[in-house]
Fold this protein.
Amino acid sequence: MLSLSRKDLVSLVVFAAVVLTMPIWLSPFGAAYPGLMQKFAIYAIFAIGFNILFGLTGYLSFGHAAFLGVGSYTTVWSFKLLTMDILPAMVFAVIVAGVFALVIGYFSLRRTGIYFSILTLAFAQMSYSLAYSVLTPITNGETGLLLARGDPRYVDQIFGAQMNLAGLPQPTLIGNALGGYGGFYLCAVLLILCFYVSQKIFASPFGLALRGIKSNQTRMNYTGFNTKPYTLAAFVISGMFAGLAGALLSITDPLAGAERMKWTESGNVVLMTILGGVGTLFGPVVGAWLIKYFENIFSAINTNMLNSFLSFLPDGVQSFFVTVLSKFVGEGWHLTLGLLFVLIVVFLPGGIVEGVQRLVARFRGGGQRGKATSPQPAE
Amino acid sequence: MTRFRLNRRNVLKGAGAGLVALSTPTIFTRGAWAQEFCNDPSKGKIIFGFNVPQTGSYAEEGLDELKGYELAVKHINGEGDGGMLKTLKPLALKGNGVLGRKVEYVTGDTQTNTDAARDGARRMIERDGAIMVTGSVTSGEAIAQQALCQEMGVIYMAGLTHSNDTTGKDKRRYGFRHFFNAYQSGVAIAPVLAKEYGTDRRAYHLTADYTWGWTQEESIKNATEALGWETVATVRTPLGLGDYSQYLTPVLNSGADVLILNHYGHDMVNSLPQAVQFGLRDRQANGKNFEIVVPMFSELMAVGAGEAVKGIIGTSNWQWSLEDEGTKAFTKSYGEAYGVPPSQAAHTGYVQTLLYADAVERAGTFYPPEVIKALEGFEFDGAGNGPTLYRDTDHQCFKEVLVVRGNENPTNRFDVLNVIGATSREEVTYDPSIFGGELGPYEPNKC
């Protein structure tokens, strides 16, 4: 039940090692601080979940951020009403997001292709608008749902838990407070678990059925295979992954805002998956890291930093390069990301993972370059 | 087979645990000494974090605020002409940096989004080692960053934020606000409204749907109802809307004769011209001229709204055309550096940075509790708003509030607002207990 093929086991070990050593290998890139590494792990979970739907069944959901937001709100409410312990919060977030996905999926999956995408987008925008203005008593609108010292926390009260009286309570894992690195390792362990689950799904008959749906749903139906429960299950599973990611966002930073449900967030996860490689195990993770890196590091580079980077150049050349490059960093980071996206989609339709595979094939194959472009299975 | 695999998994688990232990930094062994605090600059550089919206609906104000911050760092380090360093009294800064060392800064883009604002602030604190974080153009950002900074034990000097909650319900020991708030706008604008439009009016509110909008709506409603006005309806509009016609049509038949726009930034730049194009200002209602009021005004918005602002009344924290020494000095150095007059966002950012640096200089240390005590109850003058008090009970600045009106005959592109009155500091002072909230502890967390 829990076993993996040798190849998958190796990938899992490599993956776990890469994730857990993030604080070491990210430091040359200026990204080894808990705040960003937590985001890396969380958005990787989000993208892995999204890939189970998009990568395996080919259904492109444009509304996945709604589940992220639902997970976040559930978590903060669990902190407010029940307890500051994160375990119930995570369980509730995953369940609520799953139920939410079941409802949305039930309606959206009646259509395929672009109609499915539009339906999910419409549902997500509806949820966003609800969270933003109609449901403000539950979501606190644009300000975001915050913890307060006066929250009831009934379960904590029953157990007479001593809240630190100074300042806001912090989320705890069975009584242990989660600091910056504590939060990161929690997210990292969960990311590895999610990766493992995704490996199991990819390798299972269920995963095979999903791939069948992707390559030709009609043919699947003609063979007497009822595809509906399969797509719905995939949709719910990926919604639960998103719910978990949303819960972790609120655990590492106890706040839930409506902008997490905005369509740009849904678009982001599509970008992450495509950038990394749709339908591959590593692709979504790589894509998520890349986009979060751009968002947090590139957007913080300003002309002063560029000047000091390029100080070795002669004056005129330096100011020229700084003027040109400054359009691509700081407030212009979207531009860089857009260019990168275009390049990858045009030249590497399989994402970064395909790029790496081609490189590996070239190294291994030496002269026989034809092998890299071996016939692809029909899709 | 299964047994073998399970064993291997155990080995893996062990290896994973070992990696965790290895890669756990020395963070747990730190903090053994008293006065140990987050990002202590005595061990490294002095970094200020400037986190403003550079994209999104409030980007224009954010970029201007950033210019104010950059100018402040220059002046603190003794570059440029010194600006307000010459007019601020009392002042401990000597123009040679803070505590004799030069200040550096890092910047971030909050994208007019609270999540991104917190991400940016965390990056500044955890990676860049910022000792102080500042900057915001919405109260949502300000409150989110302020709460985060309290948790991390880093002082947060709020930028442009006008909600009562920032120094009310959501106030924090580590958060400070120089900017005025919605309550003060209400108090300041009410007498002028009574004088201009009478005491028998029916008001219709359109309100940006978030913390700032809500508190401003409440404050203006209370202030105008105290005058004898009646509130017909209060309608919430989502932030960042482009087309307000669906919200403006109901105003026509509501029986209201004043439209109050609780909008800011890009929202107001859209809603006000649309209201004017709707012909609201040419209408008669209840036998009176229909009027539009924008309680919270800024010159960048006024420039953006163009013709539509002419004659519109609102309040402002500060205005570059004031005649005092502090304003003149700041407007001059800002104008020389960037070629345009500064906005109130740039002003409040500039002043906040100087005030923080000065408090450190006076405290003689970066240790946050000492700096906080130096700022609490601090009385100063020469920052462009007359004598000002940083109140200790809620970290709100108390100073004159300006009532402004859109200029009917602007002489140039920047001459868009006329100051038509100033409400004294005594009048806009209120009892901090009306908004509740708690400041929390002085002791810093060790991030």
